[in-house]
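Board notes (copied after class):
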Amino acid sequence: MAANAAEGRLAFDPTRVRRVITGSAPNEVAWYPDERLQSWIYYEPSHAIGPKFVFTTGTNPDYGLKAFVVPGNWMVKLHGGESQQFHYTGLTNPLAQPSLSGPNNLGANALEFYTALTIAGFSDDAFLFYLVGIYNSQVAEDYLEGGGANVLRIPLSVSDVENGAAGRVIQIARQLRNLHWISAESSAGIDANLAGYTGGPRDAS
C-alpha cells in the first residue's frame, strides 16, 4: 500500500480523514452514533450523499431498528454485528440525473410527502428527521418484538403534515439528535468541526 501511494504521488490530506459508522447498535444507541459506533478512515473522495440517513435492519430485538442523520462526509460500514445490517441513503443521488420536480432519490409517495413539508415551510432535511423519528420510536421496537420483518415500512401521509403530527415528530427528532450529538461529542472531546456539524445543535427548533 505504501509503495502504491508513493508511485501515485499521493500526499496526506487531513481533510480526507472521515468518520465511519461501524459496529453494532444496541437499543440504547440511537439518534446520533456514540463512541461504540464510531471509527475513522482515510478516504480518497469520489462522490458523497449528504446529509445521510443511516438505518439498520435486523431481527435481534436487543440490536434492533435504529436510524441516524449524519453529514455527507461520514462513511458507513454496511455490515454490522449482532445480525444487523447498516444502510444509508439521502434525498439526492449524485450519480443519477437531476430532477426538476424535487430531490432525485425519492419515490412518488416520498416526493409528495417531501413537497408537502416544503410547502409548510420545513427545511430540506426535515423529511429525513421524520423518518428517524419514526424509526427510533417505540413503534419500531414493538414492531420488531412482535415478529415484524427486519425492516420497518414508514407510511407517508400528507394529512399528517397538514394536521401538524409530522411537524411534532420532526421537532422532537431534531432535538433528540442534537442532545445525543452533544453527549457523544463532549464525552469524546472532539471539536465540533471535526464532528461534521459546523452548525451543530443550534439548528434545533
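Comment from the instructor: The first strand starts at residue 17 and ends at 21. The helical segments are 2-7, 108-119, 126-135, 138-145, 158-162, 165-188, 192-195.
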